[in-house]
Design a protein that fits this description.
heterodimer; A: 300 residues; alpha/beta; Rossmann fold; six-stranded mixed sheet; four-stranded antiparallel beta barrel; B: 425 residues; alpha+beta; Elongation Factor Tu (Ef-tu), domain 3; six-stranded antiparallel beta barrel; 9 helices; 21 strands
Chain lengths: 300, 425
């Protein structure tokens, strides 16, 4: 008998350990759930962590109102099937209440506004730890994140003043009003996520797989057409065979042209690709430090 | 990553390593080379770095350090502030690099990066040989219990790929390293800039018959790095579904911190001292025959005894130290010096306690390992031997025997910040 875990089992074990640590160290945790593959993976790992019990925290979806319909349908089916609690924070409501101001223009996106709604949802539900599916390989500011990421009473991240994180001992101590973001799959890469989803046969929303869709081109990015999308006159809608590598708000998530209609083909595609998955995200392209700036304000 | 098949991918091991080097020794170039040659750098990342290099005004060359320096202020100042984690894979293994900065708060960051590493790469500039920094890096690697250290004698191109120079440096390091507790030490002459002996064998150093760096990383034996002898299971949380189907289910969730646990093992629960037997080791994927580190699982005992978070399930015939008094080496990480007789919070495995600093024995000069018995002001980045007493007993093993049960963190109760990393002696 070889007493050695494979790397995916080791990553799984690490994530389960982190999720259990959250439940043990905090009073009122939650799992941020966007309906994307990383949050679905976190949910799957949470189920494993507390089996045969139920997961002892709710899912929180920060809903921009500009979602892919397939994602919402998937979310609702999952909640129904597993009987988990879902809390929805609505960006539309934040706008209606005057707490967030809608961007205007052709590149308007509600991605940034999510931060307002997220912080409000955390505050009104008194969450002291929100787990999320962010990974360090995604983006250069995220490469500097801790598993347990401390946020001050304004929800801000201070990258220059992070707590050192040693061994597997996580320090979740905090003052009143402060909270934590916790990232159980910090050490997973995009390839790890896909291989694990295949190995564990985890169900995903259909838009990750190749399908025909109405799209238009802008700045080299393929956008899905939808009722919230402001198009310039020269931007023509056409049908293409596409899939999405990441799922965010419709207004900032680009598609890739792809015939990959099952997990094996997606994995081949991920292995051969020469661009990062966030290369399809307009929200990261606003400036070189776009992610860092959003995170400092309280984005996850 | 392009030739990773699914079957092979599911069977790979994970190697975590840290890189240590001083400011201009080519550490970023080496990491850039490993990432680039293993195709872990993507086109859009490279383009972004090219764009940034032009703006910051490099000398026309693409600055691979920008790949690892993620924060705005790091890029502006051209320095690395914080530990960054990098990922790459070859068809043989998956790698996590803890990339630690060269100067600012060096010790604190290297200790952090080293705390989870199996292996450390220590870069030595072939022109300068063994310098103070090399000793410092070696000492930290040894203190943090890293099992494998690879000295890369870099910039061989600048010393005409001289075997004589390489042997001279190697012999200097060997003399120094004999004072340290590292079992597996290797030496590789490289040129990170030109790629000699990094991924491909050097054509200019025929005299070197050892492995390349990448081959070493891919094959170094890490299977026995974990402690497989002393059965230790710190309880993180208790799983009690209280449903009709699992009415009497009471499972202790945790991650194995040492030894191999099996059904039927006679165990003792600390601190209560009650004994029982393991009835079952459970998981979502079914019953586990043998649980070993770092596996997360759920242990069910035959007897209904009181067990909660912070308790430790151990093999009855092999128990850890159970004491309130601890001697440790500590790396201090706060601007406020350590307070003699000061009170702090402590976290050890899943157990919380408070402690008082009873004695500061000495400070270590990490450049030459001298004990400074007269200097007891322990500042940020200092390493010292101290004695603490905890409010409740901790169940510990020596750090060099078991990293999981031999480590603890010290927390300032006023700020809640982690201020010390402790290794039990």
């Amino acid at each position: 008998m070889k007493y050695n875990l494979t790397h995916l089992k080791e990553l799984e074990s690490e994530a389960i350990y982190v999720i259990r640590e959250v439940v043990a160290q905090f009073e009122n945790p939650a799992l941020l759930f966007s309906g994307g593959k990383d949050s679905i993976l976190c949910y799957h790992l949470a189920k494993k962590a507390f089996h045969p019990g139920k997961i002892p925290f709710p899912l929180v979806h920060v809903d921009t109102g500009h979602n892919f319909p397939e994602t919402i349908q998937f979310r609702d089916q999952l909640v129904e099937k597993d009987g988990v609690e879902l809390i929805v924070g609505s960006v539309q409501q934040s706008i209606d209440e005057g707490k967030a101001i809608e961007e205007t223009g052709f590149n308007a996106s509600r991605n940034g506004l999510q931060t307002v709604t997220l912080l409000e949802t955390i505050e009104s539900n008194k969450f002291d730890a929100c787990m999320g599916g962010a990974r360090r390989d995604e983006e250069k500011a995220r490469a500097k994140e801790r598993f347990f990421s401390h946020r001050d009473e304004f929800g801000q991240w201070d990258p220059k003043n992070q707590r050192p994180e040693l061994w597997n001992i996580f320090n979740g101590m905090k003052h009143m009003g402060e909270n934590f973001r916790v990232f159980p799959i910090s050490n997973w890469t995009e390839m790890d996520v896909w291989q694990y989803i295949l190995a564990e046969n985890i169900e995903l929303p259909s838009i990750y797989f190749s399908h025909e869709r109405d799209v238009f081109m802008r700045d080299g990015v393929i956008y899905a057409d939808g009722e919230y999308m402001n198009k310039r006159p020269e931007e023509k809608v056409e049908k293409r065979v596409v899939r999405f590598r990441t799922i965010g708000d419709m207004s900032c998530t680009g598609a890739v042209e792809s015939p990959a209609d099952n997990l094996e083909k997606i994995i081949e595609e991920v292995a051969a690709t020469r661009t990062t998955e966030r290369g399809t995200r307009a929200d990261d392209k606003r400036s070189e430090a776009a992610m860092e700036d959003r995170k400092k304000q309280g984005y996850f | 990553m392009s030739d990773t098949t699914t079957a092979g991918y599911l069977d790979m091991e994970l190697l975590r390593f840290t890189t240590a080097g001083s400011v201009d020794d080519g550490k970023s170039t080496l990491i850039g080379r490993l990432l680039y040659d293993s195709k872990a750098i993507f086109q859009d990342q490279l383009e972004a770095v090219e764009k940034a290099s032009k703006r910051i005004g490099g000398e026309g060359e693409v600055n691979l350090a920008l790949l690892t320096d993620g924060l705005r202020s790091e890029r502006e100042q051209g320095i690395t502030i914080d530990v960054a984690y990098r990922y790459f894979a070859t068809p043989k293994r998956k790698f996590i690099i803890a990339d630690t900065p060269g100067h600012i708060q060096y010790t604190r960051n290297m200790v952090t990066g080293a705390s989870t590493a199996n292996l450390a790469i220590i870069l030595v500039d072939a022109r300068h040989g063994l310098v103070e920094q090399t000793s410092r890096h070696s000492f930290i690697a040894s203190l943090l219990g890293i099992k494998h250290v690879v000295y890369c004698i870099n910039k061989m191109d600048l010393v005409d790929y001289s075997q004589e120079r390489y042997e001279e440096i190697k012999s200097d390091i060997e003399d120094f390293a004999s004072k340290l507790e590292i079992n597996d030490i290797r030496y590789i002459p490289i040129s990170a800039l030109f790629g000699d002996n990094v991924v491909d064998r050097s054509k200019k150093m025929d005299w070197y018959e050892g492995a390349t760096l990448l081959y070493t990383l891919e094959t170094v034996h890490i299977g026995s790095d974990e402690n497989l002898v002393d059965g230790r299971f710190p309880v993180q949380t208790v799983i009690r579904p209280q449903t009709t189907e699992f009415h009497d289910y009471r499972g202790y969730a945790g991650r194995v911190a040492g030894g191999v646990l099996k059904k039927g093992d006679e165990v003792t629960v600390l601190p209560s001292g009650f004994t029982s037997k393991i009835a079952k080791i459970d998981s979502y994927d079914g019953e586990i025959q043998e649980a070993f580190p770092p596996m997360s699982c759920t242990v069910i005992l035959e007897d209904d005894i009181d067990v909660s978070r912070g308790d430790m399930i151990v093999r009855t015939n092999n128990q850890p130290d159970d004491t309130q008094d601890h001697e440790l080496m500590v790396c201090w990480m706060s601007k406020r010096p350590i307070q003699l007789n000061g009170k702090y919070a402590v976290k050890h495995t899943s157990r919380d306690a408070r402690c008082i600093v009873k004695e500061i024995r000495y400070k270590v000069d990490i450049n030459n390992l001298h004990k400074l018995e007269d200097d007891k002001t322990i500042n940020m980045n200092d390493i010292a031997r101290i004695k603490i007493r905890t409010t409740v007993p901790l169940f510990t093993d020596r750090y060099q025997r078991n990293r999981n049960t031999g480590s603890l963190i010290i927390i300032d109760e006023a700020t809640n910040e982690t201020v010390g990393a402790g290794m039990i002696l």
